[in-house]
Amino acid sequence: MSGYTAPLWDMRFALAEIAETDELAPDLIDAVLDGAAQLAGDVLAPLNHSGDVEGCVLENGVVRTPRGFKEAYAQWVAGGWGAIAGDPDHGGQGLPHVLATAVSEMWASANVSFALCPTLTMSAVELLIAYGSAEQKRVYLPKLVTGEWTGAMNLTEPQAGSDLGALKTRAMPDGDHFRITGQKIFITYGEHDLTPNIVHLVLARLPDAPPGSRGISLFLVPKFLINADGSLGARNDLRCVSIEHKLGIHASPTCVMSYGDAGGAIGWLVGEPNRGLQAMFTMMNRARLDVGLQGAAIAERAYQQARDYARTRVQGKAPGAASEGEPILHHADVRRMLLALRAGAEASRALVYYAAAMGDRARLSPDAGTRARAERRADLLIPVAKAWAAEIGLDAASTNIQVHGGMGFIEETGAAQHLRDARIALIYEGTNGIQANDLVTRKLVRDDGEAARELVDDMRTTTALLAGSRLGPPLAAGIDALERSSAALLDLYARDPACALAGSVPYLRLTGIVTGGWLMARGALAAERRLENGDDERSLLEAKTRTAHFFAEHWLAAAPAHLPAILGGKTVMEFDLGLL
Amino acid sequence: MSGYTAPLWDMRFALAEIAETDELAPDLIDAVLDGAAQLAGDVLAPLNHSGDVEGCVLENGVVRTPRGFKEAYAQWVAGGWGAIAGDPDHGGQGLPHVLATAVSEMWASANVSFALCPTLTMSAVELLIAYGSAEQKRVYLPKLVTGEWTGAMNLTEPQAGSDLGALKTRAMPDGDHFRITGQKIFITYGEHDLTPNIVHLVLARLPDAPPGSRGISLFLVPKFLINADGSLGARNDLRCVSIEHKLGIHASPTCVMSYGDAGGAIGWLVGEPNRGLQAMFTMMNRARLDVGLQGAAIAERAYQQARDYARTRVQGKAPGAASEGEPILHHADVRRMLLALRAGAEASRALVYYAAAMGDRARLSPDAGTRARAERRADLLIPVAKAWAAEIGLDAASTNIQVHGGMGFIEETGAAQHLRDARIALIYEGTNGIQANDLVTRKLVRDDGEAARELVDDMRTTTALLAGSRLGPPLAAGIDALERSSAALLDLYARDPACALAGSVPYLRLTGIVTGGWLMARGALAAERRLENGDDERSLLEAKTRTAHFFAEHWLAAAPAHLPAILGGKTVMEFDLGLL
Question: Residue A340: pLDDT above 80?
């Protein structure tokens, strides 16, 4: 079993050079990152494998999390980690999202099952801040911001997954509140023993609601009702009827929730009637970025485990090796795998941090034009960061198994768990196919390619600085491919939307690769600048440039080759459906 | 849970048009395939999920396979399936390997854990036919050929995995036999309850053996000794001390075997002293091809399950769809995924059957030149078929999960099992990195690129027939990339072997893609020929061509982009080892 040591050097580098968090005091960054690194490495990481083995247990309606989770969660709350990015008006510390992102990366690297719980709470907080009544905010937000209570998002029903418009849960008016009745599935941390209360946010239909996605409202439904003095009151009419037996993230309970078995769970409308889906969009960007971050986080953990193994496992003799008895790190193909893991972790981290920083800038910049441009950039890149970083995480987990050889297939080694845990990130918060659909229809077509063109322009500013560098030509070719495929997809979508959507996933992948390559090149330029300025971390800075070279050779070089797949929708759509 | 229906049409097509099994009577092929399809679909496939859930249990040294396995195995033996490719001199039916390959594909698609057992027995049979004494053949072969007893291959030890030269198990002479002492790990079906006896083939060192790989001998060590009358005698001094808890293939026991706890297991030398590793090479080609076949088989099973789900799961409304309430098959991205699954299954099947047919030709052709050329081709492509088809199987299993969305992550659906089962094929029988090393050092460098040049020549014969076809240009570009990278790697290896090996896995992948694309193009040409000849299976034949187009757009187009990674070994080898 391999531990976890937060990659603080690269995190700081990405914050400074990729996310450009100039406004944050270095002392503050250090204090936050160091504290989180300690909790992640010492407390959360050691519970990762045992949590996977034990899983969660449902007994008499109560979900028991694995041994140590309750204590770890209490420590996490006591350390103030729930509140770091929270609104200061409600007890939060108001740090920028990008710094919270670096912190969240550590939770997810250490223990992705654990990390999911705060993620859901954060979504509930965002929704209540944006749409909650003054009373709802007063009663629920302070406890949610600190993590003393957790939040749970209740969207999916058996017949309503990617298509939430098909949902059937009902809300009947009953005095000042509503009575909620229905069944929800795939509710992460819908029930657990970490906190005394759970605040459910539930999508449901009012009696007079129009059909489809325009008739969905959002309700706040606490597990325990709150008395006037703030103490916990009666148990609400909702319960966990089963938990799923999943491929991975075993330590996080995925609940089937039943509302209203005894007449209807008491809930309150959040925001306007029939505007529940729109409200959900409020938290969607952050939630999607959190899932991409899980991919980057697992890539980092997989890299660390592969490296630890390759440094100690002795096997065979590499060509040119001084002697037998050297670790497999010396084998050329093992080195290639380790460098692929390193490059994948760094590139996905850079992309997620960058998108998070754009989100901060969109909220915080004093200049309206900068805010608008940053918002377009974040909106464009968030589906890419979600889907592509999730793929990087899955590939990394698989490569880590490969570095371990036969031992990687044995569960006790812990490598297999990362693969099982990583797989879900391609699915939840909107499957990668849904992200690609969003990228093409809402982010590319809706603004007629403006945001994509702005991105290409910014990328070309970087290539202009790469004259004479080996990174220049592959990046320029990748940018050209992105520009051409964006233009061609826009054109194709106007004529035949289905045909364009058949190329949407390869298009998203291309965007991820080129943006990742661009950010790696920016990192290389920054590293060279630091070296010129006499920075004494020579080997780490040179490694940044070399990792960027590897990324260019192994990922970016393949970018132009995506075009036939992106524009090959006709082959897909003309294929005989009866045979498919 | 989804069943399995053998893809008999495409299997027959691949046998006729890709493997060119002209010499086999169609009636015979039909009878064999139809019989196997029935057993695979009706008996083995239904045990796949239950076998995964139950797994194997070790109690008092006895391994209990999951419910139904014993009966299924007995049915398999009674049906004569063990013997179909066996040597007629020892009770086999002597059918060509390529036909046995199609049959084995069905076992592996239906139930890969079950399929492993005959695979190992076949390896033992090959070894005994090639190296066994007359007495060993007489006593053991008839029972192994039919499958009444199984064979197990005992190679790996904790310190000796990819590097078998490091193994320590000892064999002390003791009269006409030897006493074997040592521990072996990762022994597939090393112990089980399917048959009354298990014939272990064990690598061990004689007392005077030279160190390293030149001091390894091969021994036959039966679980039960055989009496003079052929009945089972005393229990030998070997036992299963534990079984592994693995990511997948739960129904196949992976055993830690201990030899000689009570003084030494009785064994007999097979072949010459210190020539055990060379003997192992006898069965290596077939065993490696079997692992590639597992990849193709899981790709087929994943395709079928994804298709079944996409045809029935109703969700959302596709652009241009007539109405709500249509299955997700109508969504463009789901169609893309299904076509990717179909193309992957067909291409990997074509490659494995082709390599198997080359093996048959190398043994059976009346012409010595043809035999030699076919042997070079098989030797070249077997590491590619093993590694690339294994990757295709893993990707397909992952894509099947993606088609299922959230349901794919729930174990009861069965999709997750295919991913868990598929992962091992990249590791055992030599990791994919070992295959790539073999491809570069033994198959490319050793004959100075002759076999690779012959392959390129044959491929160009096909492109000459593709004038005017959309398949021509991407195939030609892929072939050029293969030719250039082969030449460049040869050159690089002469100067810097480690640097060349750092590009070996991307080179193997390129070879797989281009060879797969070539065989798909040959299939398309054959389909068009059949159509011109008035074949009335129009829709199936047109689908062959369209699937080849998809393969060209999604795989083959990326072939030339592999060059920077193949030739980028310097970036890998110059990276600071202390940081990696």
Answer: yes
Contacts of residue A146, Cβ cutoff 8 Å, sequence gap at least 6 = A77, A80, A82, A83, A86, A91
Q: Which long-range contacts (CB under 8 A, 24 or more apart) does A8-14 make?
A: A8/A33, A8/A34, A8/A37, A9/A537, A9/A540, A10/A346, A10/A349, A11/A102, A11/A105, A11/A349, A13/A523, A13/A526, A13/A527, A13/A544, A14/A102, A14/A346, A14/A349, A14/A350, A14/A353, A14/A523
Rounded-to-integer distance, Cα A34 and Cα A24, Å: 15
Taking CA atoms, what residue in B is nearest to A342? B580
Interatomic CA distance for residues A120 and A115, integer angstroms: 9
Q: How are the residues of chain A apportioned to helix, strand and coil, as percentages rounded to the nearest 5?
A: 60, 15, 25
Catalytic residue among B54, B429, B450, B483, which? Answer: B429
Options 3.40.640.10, 2.40.110.20, 3.90.76.10, 3.40.50.2000; CATH of A150-274: 2.40.110.20
Q: Name the CATH superfamily, with its identifier, for domain A8-146.
A: Acyl-CoA dehydrogenase/oxidase, N-terminal domain (1.10.540.10)
CA neighbours closer than 13 Å in the CB half-sphere of residue A364 = 14
For B306, which residue in chain A has the nearest alpha carbon? A580
Of the CA atoms within 13 Å of residue B122, those in its CB half-sphere come to 26
- Å from B113 to nearest chain A CA? 14
Which chain B residues touch A562 with a CB distance below 8 Å?
558
User: What does the mean pLDDT of chain A come to?
Assistant: 96
Interchain proximity B565–A542, CB inside 8 Å: no
**C-alpha closest to that of A200 among A210, A188, A211:** A188
Q: Check B575 against A550: CB less than 8 A apart.
A: yes
Scanning A210-275, the segments in alpha helix (DSSP H) are none
Cα angle A331, A394, A125 (rounded to 5 degrees) comes to 140
What six digits make up the tokens of B103? 């049959």
β-strand partners of A22: none
What angle, 0 to 180 degrees and rounded to 10, lies between the N-to-C axes of helices B504-532 and B450-464?
A: 30
Q: Which of A245, A323, A553, A577 is the best residue to mutate to test the B interface, defined by the most B CB atoms within 10 Å of its own CB?
A: A553
Q: Are A517 and A347 in contact (CB under 8 A)?
A: yes
Q: Mean pLDDT in each 10-residue stretch from start to end of chain B (580 residues)?
A: 91 96 89 98 98 97 97 97 89 92 98 97 95 97 96 95 93 97 98 98 97 96 97 98 98 98 97 96 92 98 98 84 81 98 98 97 96 97 98 98 98 98 97 98 97 98 96 98 98 98 98 98 98 96 98 98 98 94
Answer whether A8-146 and A150-274 agree in fold.
Answer: no
Q: How far is A153 from chain B (nearest CA, A)?
A: 15
Using the 8-state DSSP alphabet, how is residue B205 labeled? B
| Chain B residues with beta carbon closer than 8 angstroms to that of A473 | none
Is B391 one of the catalytic residues? no
**Amino acid sitting at position A34:** D
Specify the CATH architecture of the domain B150-278. Answer: Beta Barrel (2.40)
Nearest neighbour of B575 by CB, restricted to A163, A423, A543: A543
Instruction: Give the DSSP letter of residue B426.
Output: G
Nearest CA in chain B to A416: B247
How buried is B1 (Cβ within 10 angstroms: 0-12 exposed, 13-18 middle, 19+ buried)?
middle
Size of interface A-B (CB pairs under 8 A): 272
Q: Which residue in this structure is represented by tokens 């050029």?
A: B480
User: What proportions of chain B, in percent to the nearest 5, are helix, strand and coil?
Assistant: 60, 15, 25
Chain B residues with CB under 8 Å of A408 CB are 427
Bridge partners of residue A314, in order along the sequence: A327
Each domain of chain A, given as residue ranges in start order, spans 8-146, 150-274, 431-580
Which residue out of A17, A105, A157, A429 is catalytically annotated? Answer: A429
Q: What element of type H or E holds A293? A: helix A276-312
Measure Cα distances from A539 to A5, A346, B201 in Å.
19, 16, 50
